[in-house]
Structures are given as structure tokens and as C-alpha cells.
Amino acid sequence: MTLTDYLVLLTYLLGIFAVGVGLSAKVKNTGDLFSAGGQSPWWASGLSAFMTMFSAGTFVVWGGIAYRLGIVAVMINLCYGVAAVLVGYFVAGHWQRIGIRTPAEFIEKRYGVGPLHFYTWSMMIYRMVGVAVALYSLSVLLVALMPLAEGNPLRDPATGNLSITWAILVFGGIVVLYTMVGGLWAVLMTDVLQFIVLNLAVLFMIPLIVADAGGISSLIDRAPPGFFNPVSGDYTWFFLAGWVAIHFFMVGAEWAFVQRFLCVPSARDAKKSAYLFGILYLVSPMLWLLPPLAYRVINPDADPEQAYVLSCQHVLPIGMLGLMIAAMFSATASMVSSQLNVFAGVLTEDIYKRVRPQSDQRHLLRVGRGMSFVLGAILIALAIAVPAMGGAEDVIVTITSLMVGPLLAPTIWGLFSRRISQTAVWCTAGVCFLAGAAVKFGWPDFFAAYGKYPDVVVGVVLPVAVLTVVQMLSKGTSPGWSRVHHTAQADQVANNASSTVATTFDPTPAFIVSGALMVCGLMMFALLFVNTQNLATIGYFASALILLSAGIGYAGHRKSRTNLSRLSTPS
Predict the structure, then answer these.
(1) Where are the transmembrane segments (predicted)?
(2) Are the C-beta atoms of 291 and 316 separated by less than 8 Å?
(3) Which of 89, 301, 425, 494 has a CA positioned 20 to 30 A from the CA of residue 465?
């Protein structure tokens, strides 16, 4: 990396931190901190959900599969899009209509306090360890690109690069601070900025890597046999169908995604948010997996897990490598901030508030920010400790990941079925956990011969089968269904009472997006002075970004003035 690359990366880090701190003014209570006051634009919620699915593994794991096996990596990621569209049609609106503030509140009302604690602590352990591993993996990936001069206090003497510990502290610390101060508003808007940076870096890289591969026709001709087959090896059509089902449960019921459906004003907005998420995942995987696909014909002998980074180094001009590193950071930062915010919200609203019901909003706001900080500190400590875990994190993630499908399936089932009770939670978790343990630890060699089939059976088929049996054996209406239905009715009455109150259009999200695009455009214009190649491509991208920035800013300003004029006109 050059000095210009470091300056680009520093500009990005300072930018997202400034946005997070700036949005703290919108946080007046825990509703603002954990659900954006229910006033998030649907497009911001959808983009945030899209980014929450990303992590450093997107580049390492899926980039490696794309390099080794080809287009099947794109097919696997398209499954996320199919799942999100199905969630938009069947599930997203239901979360809005039941009148709850957090997904944990639904679990408590629908199934009781026992399942609430079971869900909270099991999902938190799984997610915290998983996110810590992702943060560590990101740091390992990025420090390899960041050499430092001898004598620099952040330098690792063994490698000559940025120390992994310092990378975790810096990258993790920035995410924790803006999440703690700005709450869900900061998470949503920094996710939008990260979406811009990610796609800018990828779209800029595509024409360069394709041209270096000799063009599309050359890429197709020189690719290995079967490189463009939609399925390959263990990744069969059965696996893809199961992958859609697993992620239908995940997007429809995992708390970070449910939070995106609850933070928008209406059920219609929740559905639009999920549709945007799904459509983006139906069109974008081919774009951001094209670099490792093309790099396979440029360098057939590369390490698959390094293919994405190597392709970036191969074609990106001065300054743009820093932007790509920012994009890789964005992928993990979004996942980290989302999980911190949602679990801090659960601990504050559904655990602490139960112990201290007399607490006022100012006190709960301080507690919520404190929870974000504590969880962030634990996360950073876990990430630093990953090398010392000796593989323990793999065991924890494996054990708990066996329970993700069994945990999430009863949540979605409980949205629609009035008959099942907490018995469904315990039966599904118990049966599927035992089956998963048998697959992963009891007879792993036996089940390994069947490829991905046992995972799909344990993660999808078995939970649905158990829930079907419980549904058939259950009689009458569950008390939990009645509690949720009562909450939904009360919320509907409150909404009807407030439906005549005029609301103003908040231009802040549009102005943040416009400003980010303008900064990126001006920064790319500046790169013209430090590069000697690809000047036309840089200039075109810079011009397009500035024009887009001006258009979004003008549209936001005009809509804001129109709304104010309408509100000031006597009826």
C-alpha cells in the first residue's frame, strides 16, 4: 500500500465515525437507540440488511469457491436473494403488524421467559464468537496489505506489517464507538455508506480485471471445464434448495434482520425493505464475485483464499487499493455493528428493564450505551484471543450453528400458528441438537460420505418435521398467541389514534448519502494526480459520483421543502 492508499482508508474511517457521532443527536431514548424510533427509511433498512449479510468471509470463503469452482459461488449467493424475497412476501409485514419493539419481546410473549433466556444467551454466544472470528479474519486479511516502517509502534516486528492486535483494536474500536453513541441510526446510515464504498470499489475493479483477462470471451474460453456450471461437487441442487430454506429462517427470524423490519414506519415499508435486500442479492453476486472468477484465468496457481486480495493488488491503481480495503472492512463492520446493537437492545429492554422496571428513559439510554460498550469490549477481547483458543471457537460455532435453524424455525412458525407453545421450542431444539451432534461429533466419517445432505436435513427438514408433529398434537389456542394478538390489537388502536398526526420528511439520510458520494467523487478526482494509468476510468467514475451526489441532494432538498410547505398550509 502507498501513502495515498492509507490516506483513502483513513478518510473512510474518519467519515463513518463522524457520521455515527453526528447521528447521536437523533438518539433521545431507547426507542431511537435500538429501533431508530420506527422512522428509518425503507431503503436504508434494506441496504443495511444487505450489508449485514456480508463479512470478511464473503471475500475469503465465497471468493475462494468462485476461484476454485466457478459460477456455483454466484448460485449459492443468489439463494440469499431468493430467501429475502420470500421473507418480504410472507414474513416481513407480520413483524410490523404484531406491535412489538424487539424480537426478544415477541419470544417472551409468544413462548415465555424460559425460551427468551434460552434464545438470548445461546444466540448471543453463537453470534459474539462468530463475529469475533470474523473480526480476527478481517484483520489477518488486511494487515497482510499494510506494511509499516521500522520503529512504528503499531508494527509487528515478526511480519513488518500492522500488528493484528492493533488492527483489531482500531477497526473494532471504531465500530463499537459509533454503534454505542449513534445507536441503530448510526448502524443504518454507516451501513448505507459502506454499501456505497463496497460497490464503488467492486464496480471500479470489474472492467480492469476483465480487460486483464482478455475480455469476456477470452475469460469463457480459458476457464477450466465446468467453471460455468450452476452446480458442482457437494453444491448440488438439493443443497441450493436447502440453502434457500435455511436463509429464509435466518432472514425472517434472526434478530438483526427482524430489527430491520421493526425500525421502519409500516408493514408496507418492512416488505419493501426485504424486497430491496432480495433484489440486490439477485443481481449483485455476479458483480462482486467476478474478480476471483477472472483471476482464475490470469493466475491459475494462486491460493484460493487469497484470490480476491491478489486480484485487487493485480489491477487496482494507486489509492483504489485503500478503497478496496475500506470495502472489506465495511463488510465485517456492518455485521459487527448490527449484532452489537440488537443484543444490547435485548439486554437493556428485555432483561435489565425487567429487573429495574421503574427506570426512566434517560437511565435506560445510559444502560443501553453501556451494554453496547461492554459487548464491544468482550467482542474485541475474543477477537484478540482467537489464536489462543486452539480451535475452541470452531467447536463453539459448530455446536451453536447446529441450533440456528432449530431456533429460528419455531420463531417463524409461531408468527402464523396459534396452536404451538413453548413445547415446540424445546422439542425442536432438543431433537435437532442431538441429531446435529451425531452428525458432527458422533459419526462424522460416516456422514461425511453424504456431502452436504446431512447438514440440510438437520438444518431444514428435521426442524420442519418436528414442528409439524407438534402442530398436529397441539390442541386449542396457545396463551402466547393470545398475548401477541392482544399486543397487536393495542398497537393498531394506537396507530389509528395517531394516524392523523402530520409527519415531516427527514432529509438527513438523503443528505448523508449525497455527501458520501460527493466525497468519494472528489477523492477519485484527486487520484488522477497520483496515477498514470486508467485515468479515463477514474475520471468517468468520479464524474458519475458527483452527478449522482448532486441529484440525490437536490431530490432530498426539494422533497423536504415540499413537505414543509404542505404542513404549513392551513387545512
Answers:
(1) 6-25, 46-65, 71-92, 125-146, 166-188, 195-217, 237-262, 274-298, 318-347, 367-389, 395-416, 423-443, 455-473, 510-530, 536-556
(2) no
(3) 89
**What Rg do the C-alpha atoms of the chain give, in angstroms?**
24
Q: pLDDT at position 500, please?
A: 47
Answer yes or no: pTM beyond 0.70.
yes
| Cell matching residue 117 | 433466556
Which sign does the torsion angle of CA 279, 281, 282, 283 carry?
Answer: positive
Q: What is the C-alpha to C-alpha distance for residues 514 and 356, in angstroms, rounded to an integer?
A: 42
Q: For residue 127, give the C-alpha cell.
A: 453470534
Cα 166 from chain centroid (whole Å) = 24
Q: What dotted CATH number matches 1-23+30-386?
A: 1.20.1730.10
Domain boundaries, the chain: 1-23+30-386, 402-499, 515-564
Q: What are phi and psi of 206, to 5 degrees?
A: -55, -55
- Tens-digit pLDDT profile for residues 410-426: 999 999 999 999 999 99
Cα separation of 278 and 240, whole Å?
A: 16
Nearest to 180 by CA among 429, 366, 436: 366
Percent of the chain with pLDDT over 70: 93
Residue 350 φ/ψ, nearest 5 degrees: -110, -15
Grid coordinates in use for 45? 433498512
Burial of 169 (0-12, 13-18, 19+ CB in 10 A): middle
Phi, psi values for residue 139, rounded to 5°: -65, -40
Q: What is the pLDDT of residues 327-372, one digit of tens each?
A: 888 878 888 898 999 999 999 988 898 888 888 888 999 999 999 9
The candidate with the shortest Cα–Cα distance to 428, out of 403, 396, 452, 453, is 403
Question: What Å distances lie between residue 539 and 31, 131, 358, 426, 524, CA to CA?
Answer: 43, 37, 59, 59, 7
Q: 27 CB contacts (<8 Å, ≥6 apart)?
A: 33, 181, 182, 183, 185, 365
pLDDT score at 157: 87
Which of 97, 87, 96, 103 has its CA nearest to residue 275? 87
Percent of the chain with pLDDT over 90: 39
